[in-house]
Every structure is written in C-alpha cells, then in structure tokens.
C-alpha cells in the first residue's frame, strides 16, 4: 500500500475530493499535477490567486494545502482522492466499494472538521450518497438547458459537525462550459 497523496488541513473550509490518483500524480507525488485544468478553474472561480501559476504543478498542492499560500480570503483548502491507492486514468475502469467513504473519513479524521466537501464527478458523488443517504445522487442533479446544475447536494453530519456537500464536474475530460461559474457557488 502506497502513502496517500491526500492533503487535508485541520479545520479546512473546503476539501475537494476526486476519485483516484493518475500515474502523473504518483510520479510527481502530488494530486492534480498532470495539467493546469483544476488550477485554472480554482483561479477563475476566485479560490486562488493567479500567482500560483508561477509554482511548478507538482508543488502546488503542498503550497496551497499545507502552507496555505495563494488562497484568496484566507480560505483553507484540502485536496484528496476517495481511492488513494488505485492508480487509473480511465474512471470507467474504477470500481468503488461501499466502505471506501467510511475508510476515507477514518484515515483522514481532519476531514470530519471540514466546513464544505466538494465531490468531483459522478462516481464520487454516488459513493458518498451510498454512505450518506441525505445527499443527492448524480442523476438527481437538475439539468437546465442540457447541462447539470452543479452545486449544493445536501449536508452530512459527522460527530456533531454539519458539513455542506457539493457536486462538481471533474476539471478535465468533459466539455462542460463555464465550470468556474459552478465552482464559484461553493464560496457563497
């Protein structure tokens, strides 16, 4: 079992949870280190200062999540994968076992103190729904003018902590227009 690349600070304002690391992430020892897509969305959605682009991709998660630099309004950001030990670029090939959501919280207890959790993509949303029935499933997100209306999908309660959850499209490999508009809803 490899060491998790998840970076979740204590008392995070927002934690982004993707499905699993890519080969690039493993090679670089950093999540979202393959390309600029995720970072561009966070800049355009007003989470991060554009100066983060001067930092090499493989160093950004550490700078943002551990050193808490380049964030706007002193927001504390965490970034994690639901399946940190499964390396696969094609999410269609990834199967999520029901206990993996519980395992994520057990292995990352600081996640229980997050104010907001952002679930990136259908498999992550549906996995959380199978564990927290209060959350909407992916197919329950309204479609307006042919596009899902990404945003708030409900709250979960863990150890007397209320956490608001959001569903967002994954930053890459889809042609959803205006992703930053949806991501900016998290800050409201």
Order of helices and strands: EHHHEHEHEEEEH
β-strand number? 7
What is the CATH level 1 assignment? Alpha Beta
Radius of gyration: 15 Å
Tell me the CATH architecture: 3-Layer(aba) Sandwich
Question: In which range does the helix fraction lie?
Answer: 25-40%
Say which CATH homologous superfamily is assigned: Uracil-DNA glycosylase-like domain
Stated plainly, the CATH topology is called Uracil-DNA Glycosylase, subunit E
- Going by helix content, strand content and strand pairing, the class is alpha/beta
Integer average pLDDT: 94
Distinct helical segment count: 6
Per the principal axes of the C-alpha atoms, what is the gross shape? globular
Query: Which strands sit side by side, in order, in the main sheet?
Result: 2-1-3-7-6
- How much β-strand is present in the residues? 15-25%
Low-confidence stretches: none
Outline the biggest β-sheet: 5 strands, mixed
Separation of termini? 38 Å
């Amino acid at each position: 079992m490899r060491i998790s690349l998840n970076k979740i600070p204590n008392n995070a304002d927002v934690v982004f949870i993707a499905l699993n690391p890519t080969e690039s992430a493993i090679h670089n020892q950093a999540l979202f280190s393959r390309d600029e897509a995720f970072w561009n969305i966070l800049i355009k959605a007003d989470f991060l200062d554009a100066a983060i682009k001067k930092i090499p991709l493989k160093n950004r998660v550490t700078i943002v999540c551990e050193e808490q630099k380049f964030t706007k309004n002193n927001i504390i950001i965490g970034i994690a994968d639901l399946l940190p030990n499964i390396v696969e670029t094609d999410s269609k090939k990834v199967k999520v076992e029901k206990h993996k959501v519980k395992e994520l919280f057990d292995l990352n207890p600081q996640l229980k103190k997050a104010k907001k959790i952002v679930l990136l993509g259908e498999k992550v949303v549906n996995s959380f729904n199978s564990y927290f029935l209060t959350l909407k499933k992916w197919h329950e997100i309204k479609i307006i003018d042919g596009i899902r209306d990404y945003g708030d999908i409900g709250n979960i309660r863990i150890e007397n902590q209320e956490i608001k959850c959001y569903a967002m499209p994954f930053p890459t490999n889809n042609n959803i227009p205006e992703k930053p508009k949806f991501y900016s809803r998290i800050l409201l």
